[in-house]
Automatic annotation (TrEMBL):
Protein name listed in UniProt: Serine carboxypeptidase-like 19
Keyword Membrane: no
SUPFAM superfamilies named among the record's database cross-references: alpha/beta-Hydrolases (SSF53474)
PANTHER family: SERINE CARBOXYPEPTIDASE-LIKE 19, SERINE PROTEASE FAMILY S10 SERINE CARBOXYPEPTIDASE
Keywords: Signal
Tree of life domain: Eukaryota
N-terminal signal peptide: 1-25
InterPro entries, per database record: AB_hydrolase_fold, Peptidase_S10
Family the UniProt entry places it in: Belongs to the peptidase S10 family.
Amino acid sequence: MRNDLSFLVLFLLIIFSIHDHLVDASSLLVKYLPGFEGPLPFELETGYVSIGESGDVELFYYFVKSERNPKNDPLMIWLTGGPGCSSICGLLFANGPLAFKGDEYNGTVPPLELTSFSWTKVANILYLESPAGSGYSYARTRRAFESSDTKQIYQIDQFLRSWFVDHPEFISNPFYVGGDSFSGKIVPGVVQQISLGNEKGLTPLINIQGYVLGNPLTDKNLESNYIVSFAHGMGLISDELFESLERSCEGQFFNVDPSNARCSNNLQTFDHCMSEIYSEHILLRNCEVDYIIPETLQTLPNIRTNRRRELKEFSGNDSSSLPPPSCFTYKYFLSAFWANDENVRKALGVKKEVGKWNRCNIQNIPYTFEIFNAVPYHVNNSRKGFRSLIYSGDHDSMVPFSSTQAWIRALNYSIVDDWRPWMMSNNQVAGYTRTYANKMTFATIKGGGHTAEYNPDQCSLMFRRWIDGEPL
């Protein structure tokens, strides 16, 4: 009898232990992460959701519960741009609770620290790696690996409805879709797709309320045409070149007629002036964005001393070509070591089928670009009454704030709160904002770049006020 009782107690302990770590068959509660000292002071879940026609696509996600009131706070899915960029860009760079310390790499797992600007202080955030081939997401067949703008939209909707089945406690939370950069083509479509699915009676119903977009790629022709006036306004090209470009190209700088020699020559001069500018933030040092980390170096467990010599030996690179920690993009260099570390992948529950992690992997994804203008999605979403926050770092030349203002203005909605500065808590100007009758708020981030990571404190305050329904 005593042996039977001992066995029962042991069995129950095993069951409870398994339940403590597993949310469902492919989800994991992560309590420790390599690079971070001690247990995580927030709730992190990772996992895979099988989607696609035959379940051949495995999309990986990170889910961070709100630090305020997860049962009632909004839930937002965050989509990193690219396409093909890992959602680590959001989790560890832009608006998540952890970030790299930025110490010079010494061969160990790059250290992490808590951030003060995490959007998860006021919202539950689901960071999704989409499409397959991004981050730790993958596909089992070549056909399933193929993706496109519209396929992403359908698969994200499918992912969400499957995820909510396993997380029914969040179904009633106000739901938002967020993203930046290339996600400007995807996020509005996901909002529309969710809405249409709800109307058709797809279950579970998703409590969609609106969306958030940062420096969103919306209309490539429009954005390309505004880069020239942006550069002129920022003093990067001369008055004479700007005027000559306007005359010779007639205000059209995208898909220029090759027979227009004067326009082509002016554009070559323009490209020369901009060639050494870091396009994501024109004031920052122009460093390489990503560095190729050889397989031999990634798998060495004990490189601890004389980092420069060993990096040169195993990478074949001269030490002068390695990124200095003073580069803003140095954290991208660190992320390649962190995300490819076997202990990190084990802690996150990454499946063995996943190969080398790349921050952005579009070159290896068979992807079709189909949405050339996302404005119709915004129109449809506005008609259905969804809230939206569109923000722009005002020193980004990739998607200039002026081009975003232009397509918003073209929607021709009346203004309910006209252009004004919005302030930080210390009474310093954080940027400028305007709100329209279609529940769309536009905001600039003063001194900001292409994504929230360039000015995370301003973006965090902006998000908190907007998600809580307060004026900026």
